[in-house]
Amino acid sequence: MPIVVTLDLMLAKRKMRSRELAERIGITEANLSLLKSGKVRGVRFDTLARICEVLDCQPGDLLGYEPGPESPGGAEEA
Prior knowledge:
Layout: E1 3-5, H1 7-13, H2 18-25, H3 29-37, H4 45-55, H5 59-62, E2 63-65
Antiparallel strand pairs: 1-2
Helix pairs in contact: 2-3
């Protein structure tokens, strides 16, 4: 997927553990782990806003775009 989640890098910069972030933004560690790995189809804006507030960052610090195929099989949708 061309959208890359760099949440783990921001957590490292802020010297914060996933558990603490999950508690502070009100989601489970399991859901935060899925978000960090990019295995989610979307993220709510209010969740993104809480992450940015706690980590003192902008959404662009957490998400990036890398052109490439949409699916692992290489098939792109039109």
